[in-house]
């Protein structure tokens, strides 16, 4: 659903996990932004009429052989440039500075001291900010033409500004929600330095999407799960193609407690879509038998989904298109964006679908993040309760069971996650966090139940706060809440004798355990 980039911001994609998130944050300012290949030349940017360019982060080292490099003329000052992380290092190196391995890696929160007001830090009264870092390399020396405007304990050149043109660089990630005043930093560049045109809105995205989807020349089979993403996809397609849409809900046997009944009720009643339930749980669990590797699990689930869709299509078809609620975090984590991104995990609806599928895949939300999808869902009239549901992984409980998927571990993961959600709802915390669940592995620990020694499972509870799922921080729940969770789990879930609480953020961890 791309628009004219004239007056907007081009983000040069060097494969960073947050590259598309930069576009998201720029669009939040009302300015259209899209990813373009990192090889886009300075001449091409000028021909597009962009107001400015942002160089994204990336997994490579700028000094490594074969590392992606931009057109050096991008730094001639004719188009305003902001380099972020890898892009920051590219800018420093291109202007004569040195970049090397950091003496100490920085991942997660880091305190950035503002050394010079104005520029990117215009309007920020504070002298230091808690910012999100994710780097192994950093500038070791900067040339005379660059002023250092911010620093951290481990990154003395955390922000720079050129004295001779609109060129800026930051080692931290202003696009990440956990960076304090990050949106102010981006606004100062996009609106202040670049003077970009404010022409983007979610209502505009909806209209363009409906217009484009209405051109689909055949029946559409939409895979729905009851989650926000697939529900919004179904609602959007329902508006665009009407009677040509057929929705199918696959019961994989890997669902949340009571999920199938809940999903079928609200899809038919609240959305008014034509939806049919298919119980394929036996096939999914059979395919997962003996599979312990998490990547293999995701691919097995992806293939099982494809097989189920194909069987349904042959019985209820023909269908020309298969629609999915794929979001951009799924795409970037699966390493399927347009840039040299690293694969973090294969998502069942991105890397898991096998080649040779008889239907063309349609992914109308592929460019969006969860918070944007919720905004779009509200515009489409979806119930607030549906939009507020916590995300649930496509492979379901298969990725919340460490090791081989067994009936016992599935039961424990399912019942434990229900307990966690119930406690948060009772405490008024459910809507304040991004995601909350429990997972279980093969380890057995010693417990004491009824004065008897008993071996049982340890359940790990995870509750995180996020905006877009590209980054997440563990939720600082009160000890009394954690005590309630632990007590209920050990009392109510058969086989659980111990409870742990995970306190790792993303990065370095991911939200789901696998």
Structure description:
This protein is of the alpha/beta class. It folds into three domains: 9-193, Class I glutamine amidotransferase (GATase) domain (Rossmann fold), CATH 3.40.50; 202-387, Rossmann fold (3-Layer(aba) Sandwich); 400-501, GMP Synthetase, Chain A, domain 3, CATH 3.30.300.10. The protein contains 14 helices and 18 strands. It has helices spanning 19-28, 42-48, 86-94, 182-193, 202-213, 228-241, 259-271, 281-288, 294-316, 328-333, 370-380, 384-387, 407-426, 479-492, and strands at residues 9-13, 33-37, 52-55, 81-84, 98-114, 128-141, 146-151, 159-162, 167-170, 220-224, 245-251, 275-279, 321-323, 360-362, 435-449, 452-465, 473-474, 496-501. The strands form three sheets. Strands 2-1-3-4-9-8-7-5-6 form a nine-stranded mixed beta sheet, sandwiched between helices. A five-stranded parallel beta sheet has the order 12-11-10-13-14, sandwiched between helices. Strands 15, 16, 17 and 18 form a four-stranded mixed beta sheet that branches. The chain is globular. The two termini are 31 Å apart.
Describe the protein's topology.
Blueprint: E1 9-13, H1 19-28, E2 33-37, H2 42-48, E3 52-55, E4 81-84, H3 86-94, E5 98-114, E6 128-141, E7 146-151, E8 159-162, E9 167-170, H4 182-193, H5 202-213, E10 220-224, H6 228-241, E11 245-251, H7 259-271, E12 275-279, H8 281-288, H9 294-316, E13 321-323, H10 328-333, E14 360-362, H11 370-380, H12 384-387, H13 407-426, E15 435-449, E16 452-465, E17 473-474, H14 479-492, E18 496-501
Helix pairs in contact: 5-6, 6-11, 8-9, 13-14
């Amino acid at each position: 659903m791309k628009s004219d980039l004239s007056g907007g911001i081009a983000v040069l994609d060097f494969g960073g996990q947050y590259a598309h998130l930069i576009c998201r944050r720029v669009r939040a300012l009302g300015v259209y932004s899209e990813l373009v290949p990192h090889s886009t030349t300075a001449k091409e940017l000028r021909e597009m009429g962009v107001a400015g360019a942002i160089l994204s982060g990336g997994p490579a080292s700028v000094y490594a052989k074969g590392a992606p490099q931009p057109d050096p003329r991008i730094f001639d000052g004719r188009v305003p440039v902001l380099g972020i992380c890898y892009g920051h290092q590219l800018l420093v190196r291109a202007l004569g500075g040195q970049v090397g391995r950091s003496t100490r890696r920085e991942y997660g929160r880091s305190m950035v001291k503002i050394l010079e007001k104005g520029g990117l830090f215009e309007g920020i009264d504070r002298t230091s900010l808690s910012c999100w870092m994710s780097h192994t390399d950093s500038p070791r020396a900067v040339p005379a033409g660059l002023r250092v405007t911010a620093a951290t304990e481990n990154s003395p050149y955390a922000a720079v500004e050129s004295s001779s043109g609109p060129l800026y660089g930051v080692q931290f990630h202003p696009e990440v929600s956990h960076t304090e005043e990050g949106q102010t930093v981006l606004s100062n560049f996009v609106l202040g330095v670049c003077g970009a045109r404010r022409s983007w809105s979610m209502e505009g995205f909806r209209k363009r999407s409906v217009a484009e989807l209405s051109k689909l020349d055949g029946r559409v089979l939409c895979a729905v799960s009851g989650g926000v993403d697939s529900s919004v996809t179904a609602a959007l397609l329902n508006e665009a193609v009407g009677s040509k849409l057929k929705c199918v809900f696959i019961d994989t046997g890997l669902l949340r407690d009571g999920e199938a009944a809940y999903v079928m009720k609200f899809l038919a009643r609240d959305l008014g879509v034509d939806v049919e339930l298919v119980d394929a749980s036996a096939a999914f669990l059979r395919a997962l038998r003996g599979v312990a590797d998490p990547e293999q699990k995701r691919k097995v689930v992806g293939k099982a989904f494809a097989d189920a869709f194909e069987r349904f299509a042959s019985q209820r078809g023909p269908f020309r298109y298969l629609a999915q609620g794929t979001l951009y975090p799924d795409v970037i984590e699966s390493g399927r964006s347009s840039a040299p991104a690293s694969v973090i995990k294969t998502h069942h609806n991105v890397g898991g679908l096998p080649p040779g599928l008889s239907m063309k895949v349609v992914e109308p939300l592929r460019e969006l993040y969860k918070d944007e999808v919720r905004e779009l869902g509200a515009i489409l009239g979806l119930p607030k309760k549906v939009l507020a549901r916590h995300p649930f992984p496509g492979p379901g409980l298969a990725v919340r069971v460490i090791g081989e998927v067994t009936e016992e571990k599935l039961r424990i993961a399912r019942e434990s996650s229900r307990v966690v959600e119930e406690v948060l709802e009772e405490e008024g915390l459910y809507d304040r966090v991004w995601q909350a669940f429990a997972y279980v592995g093969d380890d057995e620990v010693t417990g004491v139940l009824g004065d008897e020694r008993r071996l049982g499972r340890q359940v790990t509870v995870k509750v995180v706060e996020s905006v877009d799922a590209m980054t997440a921080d563990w939720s600082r729940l009160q000890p009394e809440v954690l005590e309630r969770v632990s007590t209920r789990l050990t009392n109510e879930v058969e086989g659980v004798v111990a409870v742990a609480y995970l306190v790792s953020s993303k990065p370095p961890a991911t939200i789901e355990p696998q």
